[in-house]
Write a structure and sequence with these properties.
Protein name: UPF0344 protein ERX29_02550
Subcellular location: Cell membrane
Number of helices: 5
Oligomer: single chain
Bound molecules: protoporphyrin IX containing FE
Distance between the termini: 20 Å
InterPro entries: UPF0344
Membrane topology: Multi-pass membrane protein
Number of domains: 1
Family: Belongs to the UPF0344 family.
Length: 124
């Protein structure tokens, strides 16, 4: 499950950047935007389900930090959708874009700090 989780959020972040760059404020979406966005949603769902699964299995160890990881992960995924929604409505989305990256980094750091998984093992 941890591997599925890692693959899912890595793919989601890459697809997020790709989708974001495939929507021009002046010209609208490229022909790749829609398939990228659909694939992105699939991986967002996988990251959510796998993360939730690990959460309910592991949260007894450190309920507070796992709770924060859950919320930060959820916020990151939510921000990804919100950023692209603003982009689609041609509202300013740069700040949302940077906030998404910031939250993804914090979520990553907390995930690496929490004990499970191959990325945590790299640091021990
Ligand atoms: C873009 C969003 C996300 C990123 C960047 C992210 C990142 C990570 C990372 C780096 C790990 C550690 C993997 C390892 O040590 O090998 C991890 C584990 C975990 N993630 Fe996420 N995650 C995200 C979304 C979520 C969501 C939405 C949830 C909950 C629904 C969640 C729940 C968990 C849980 C419970 C763990 C196990 C923590 C541990 O004990 O190591 N994550 N995540």
């Amino acid at each position: 499950m941890l591997h599925l989780h890692i693959v899912s959020w890595v793919a989601a972040l890459i697809l997020f950047f790709a989708a974001y760059e495939n929507f021009s404020d002046r010209l609208g979406p490229s022909k790749y935007f829609k398939p990228l966005h659909m694939l992105l949603r699939l991986f967002l769902l996988l990251a959510l389900v796998s993360g939730g699964y690990i959460f309910f299995q592991a949260m007894d160890n450190n309920a507070a930090l796992y709770g924060i990881k859950f919320i930060l992960g959820l916020l990151t995924l939510g921000l990804i959708e919100m950023t692209l929604a603003r982009k689609r409505k041609k509202k300013s989305s740069r700040n949302f874009f940077y906030l998404t990256i910031l939250l993804a980094l914090i979520t990553f750091a907390l995930g690496a700090y929490l004990p499970l998984g191959p990325i945590s093992a790299l640091f021990n």
